[in-house]
Amino acid sequence: MMRTYKFFMRPTARQGHALIAMLRDHCSLYNSALQERRDAYRHASRTKVRYGQQSAQLKEIRAFDPERQGRWSFSSQQATLRRLDRAFAAFFRRVKAGDKPGYPRFRSVSRFDTVDFPRDGDGCGWNSTPHALVTRVRLQGVGHIRVHQHRPVIGKVKTVSVKREGRRWYVILTAERAKPEPLPATGSVVGIDMGISNFLADSNGRFVNNPRHGRKAAAKLEAAQRGLRRCKRGSKRRCTAVEKVARLHRKVRRQRLDHAHKIALDLVRSHDAIAHEDLKIRNMIRRPAPRPDPAKPGNFLPNGAASKAGLNHSIADAGWGVFLAILNAKAECAGREVMAVDPRNTSRRCPACGHTAKRNRPTQEKFHCVSCGHSAHADTVGALNVLRAGLARREAQPA
Asked: For 266, what's the count of Cα atoms within 13 Å in the CB-facing half-sphere?
């Protein structure tokens, strides 16, 4: 079982400059490798340059430029080249699937924020002493950096990554650990229905309010972005304004993560099995397709794009995808079962008689069965149907 840990680093001023130089040089390597692939494809009869060929050139590159490339870890530079190779693999996959291709782009120094070390001990070293007074991580070319380790790392560290977020530096570890002891059984199962007005409703009639962190911070973000637009490019005022906008976005992201962690932990501790809707969130937040006007060529009919944009913002602000990922990770560690079921008609099917009709849900919150007269909150009805579908799926699975 692989787990990820993220810790805040406290580099000195000298180490901070070295970290910035490391990102700059890896960004230069990434852009140079991308340029080589572009030139080979354009000028050499569409010849493709692969990762193996570019990795073989690293020794010559390091010998030619020892000040900028020779002082960093060889394996971290290989990881940067693999990163470019994955970008091209994803590009060709999208081309074959008929999606928007998205050709790999050059990276500016301000947007290249991560350096990966594929193996602990190769160009990097994590201080694994359990009772050390000060935790440090060693990076080749930078030194031993203090780390604020707020929780123990369980298992053997496999990979180490360094990430910059604004003016802060973080070290990200992946550790392999044995399967943990499951939590004691509670004998309880639950179905959950995620929404906009309520973040979550379960089959027991409990509701979790939607905190709407993005909407609450919208006014401050709008003011900060307005100030950013007034700044001249390249000026110090613009750098300060960019940091302010990034700081506000970072706060919203952390609030959303904190809320998701707390709700997921409560569900995992209270229930043995959790059923949820298998939502296709990417499809749900797509823009509506344009509707050409047959009577007036070149014109378009109203397609509800404005109202759909508001719904898309609300879905993104709720953070369903982040919550489900955290829920699955915590359930795996606790030995709980998480089941994803088909969401179709879960809010239109009566839990009392099984009648399914669109008229069963006259409003967003109210459910009233036109067949048997059963009335309840629509989100609670959806959670009950999700639970029943999950239990039926679990019983149908072979032992």
From this structure: 12
Distance CA 119, CA 73 (A): 11
Secondary-structure percent of the chain, ordered helix, strand, coil, rounded to 5: 45, 20, 35
Instruction: Give the pLDDT confidence of 48-87 residue by residue, as tens digits.
Output: 889 999 999 999 999 999 999 999 999 999 999 999 999 9
> Global pTM?
0.87
* Distance between CA atoms of residues 316 and 322, nearest Å: 10
Q: What is the mean pLDDT of residues 25-53?
A: 90
> Do 379 and 207 form a contact (C-beta atoms < 8 A)?
yes
Q: Which is it for the CA torsion 355, 359, 364, 367, positive or negative? A: negative
Q: How many residues does the chain have?
A: 399
Tokens linked to 1:
């079982």
Q: What whole-number distance in Å separates Cα of residue 382 and Cα of residue 370? A: 16
Read off the pLDDT of residues 205-238 as tens digits, 9 standing for 90 and up: 999 999 999 999 999 999 999 999 999 998 999 9
* Average pLDDT for 365-381: 91
Beta-ladder partners of 192: 202
- What span, in angstroms and rounded, lies between the C-alpha atoms of 13 and 67? 20
- Rounded-to-integer distance, Cα 245 and Cα 228, Å: 8
The answer to whether the beta carbons of residues 213 and 256 sit under 8 Å apart is yes
| 195-199 contact pairs (CB < 8 A, 24+) | 195/379, 196/311, 196/314, 196/315, 196/318, 197/364, 197/365, 198/379, 199/259, 199/263, 199/318
Q: How is residue 39 annotated by DSSP?
A: H
